[in-house]
Inverse folding.
């Protein structure tokens, strides 16, 4: 009886469980939570209090779960045409369940930010709202990069405010983060440009075209490293930390460029596999930039 129930609808309980896990986009969610935790550790000079750190990690996790599940809900018709193996079009997760997860996780993310104080709560609200705005509206428009630029640079501010007093100089995260986040957005988007364009999407990367998106994503990452080096010349930062961070970030970007063969067109499974390696390296470069910038403020 139990075995037949588990296979209701043609799928096993294990397949459905994996579908729900895939719905939550585990790699980007895990990297975002990890980055927030590392930012907090650095901001607290290696000794964050367990309570605020725990609230931070839970709040960021719930925020990312809400954004990820709403993304798949909003993209269910596009995914049915271009990525039928994703959880909703594959029948592993009902659309209503994905929407319910987003609806529950969003207020819980903000509720978990309350004990961290008003600055962290504001950062949590900005970051969550940016991600949800991308899902609900911006993805298919020329403004698709804007929610990324609003939401992601707030992460180190969110983490810092959770474990240490907020400082206005933290808003510099938007100066450092804007080109970096643009590069990440392009890196995440350009592999699917042609399929998305065929189904009516006209996002920021689509306007640049595949070749233009590749050129701009490399320029954005290189420009971010150069920006760090430029900040090292001014006051308020540990110059050696910024210069070291810029060098390490450039090395990771160079490794990503080599792994992807310059961002070659993804016309084969091998090329897609190389791009996945490159994308992981670019994510690591992004976290490195954030950590180095936060460390330069506390050194």
């Amino acid at each position: 009886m139990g075995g037949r129930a588990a296979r209701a609808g043609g799928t096993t309980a294990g397949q459905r469980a994996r579908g729900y896990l895939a719905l939550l986009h585990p790699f980007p969610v895990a990297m975002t939570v990890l980055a927030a935790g590392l930012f907090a550790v650095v901001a607290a000079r290696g000794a964050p209090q367990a309570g605020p750190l725990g609230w931070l990690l839970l709040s960021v996790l719930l925020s990312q779960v809400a954004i990820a599940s709403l993304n798949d809900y909003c993209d269910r018709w596009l995914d049915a045409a271009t990525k039928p193996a994703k959880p909703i079009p594959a029948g592993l997760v009902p659309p209503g369940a994905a929407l319910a997860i987003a609806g529950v996780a969003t207020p819980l993310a903000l509720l978990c930010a309350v004990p961290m104080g008003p600055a962290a709560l504001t950062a949590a609200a900005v970051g969550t709202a940016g991600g949800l705005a991308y899902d609900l509206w911006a993805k298919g428009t020329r403004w698709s990069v804007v929610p990324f630029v609003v939401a992601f640079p707030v992460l180190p501010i969110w983490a810092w405010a959770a474990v240490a007093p907020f400082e206005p100089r933290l808003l510099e995260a938007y100066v450092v983060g804007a080109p970096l986040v643009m590069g990440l957005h392009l890196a995440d988007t350009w592999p699917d440009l042609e399929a998305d364009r065929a189904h009516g999407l006209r996002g920021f990367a689509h306007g640049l075209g595949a070749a233009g998106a590749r050129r701009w994503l490399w320029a954005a990452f290189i420009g971010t490293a150069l920006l760090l080096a430029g900040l090292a010349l001014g006051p308020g930062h540990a110059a050696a930390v910024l210069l070291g961070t810029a060098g390490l970030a450039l090395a990771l970007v160079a490794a990503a460029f080599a792994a992807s063969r310059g961002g070659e067109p993804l016309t084969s499974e091998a090329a897609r596999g190389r791009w996945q390696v490159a994308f992981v390296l670019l994510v690591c470069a992004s976290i490195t930039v954030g950590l180095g910038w936060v460390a330069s403020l506390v050194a």
In short: Residues 201 and 218 are 23 Å apart (CA to CA). The chain has two domains: 1-166, 169-299.
